[in-house]
Amino acid sequence: MASAREEILQRIRDARVTPAPPVVRGYLAEGPGGVELFAERVADYRAVVHVVSNVPEALERLVGKRIVAPAGVPEEWLVDGVTWLREPLSIEELDGADGVLTGCAVAIADTGTIVLDGGEAQGRRALTLLPDYHLCVVRADQIAGSVPEALARLEPTRPLTFISGPSATSDIELNRVEGVHGPRTLEVLIVDYRG
C-alpha cells in the first residue's frame, strides 16, 4: 500500500511545469510632466515651492544661516553671508545646522516626488534627515512626467531616497505631526530658464 506521502511526491515528479506567459505591462512611459504640474503636486505635500531662473539670487535670503552644502554643490550656489558647513560633519554638527541645500537626481511631476541617489550635490542620506530644513534645487530638465520614466533615469543600485514633502506622520487619532522622521520644512527651487 503506497502511502499518501509517496503518492503526492510521485504526482509532483510527474507534473510538467510550464513557464508562465510573460506579463505585459502597459505602463505609461511618459506622463504629462512639466514644471507646472511638478510645482503643483509638490506644493500639495506642504512644500514651499519657487520657480526661479537664478539660483544664487534665490539663495541670498539664507544670509545668517548655517547651511550644510554637500560635495558637488555648484560654487555659484554658495552665496556670501551664509555659513556653509562642508563634509565630513558629525551627527551633532548636522543636527545643529539650520538646514541643508541639495540638488536631486530626478523629480516626478505626476506624484510631486523628489528622488535623491547620493550623487553630486546630494550627499549622504543623513544630510537630508537630520537638519530641520531641506532646500532642494530641481532643474526643469530633471523633472520626469511619470514614475516609470523617472525610474528609467535612475541607477537601481544607488541608495535611493524618495521625498514627497516634509517629513510627516499621523497618530491613531490622525493628528499630523511634521518633522519626526526628517525635515519639518521642505523648500523646493525649480530652476526654469524659460523666463
UniProtKB/TrEMBL annotation:
Span of domain LUD: 92-191
Highest taxon above the source species: Bacteria
SUPFAM superfamilies: NagB/RpiA/CoA transferase-like
Protein name: Lactate utilization protein C
Species annotation: Lentzea rhizosphaerae
Lineage: Bacteria, Bacillati, Actinomycetota, Actinomycetes, Pseudonocardiales
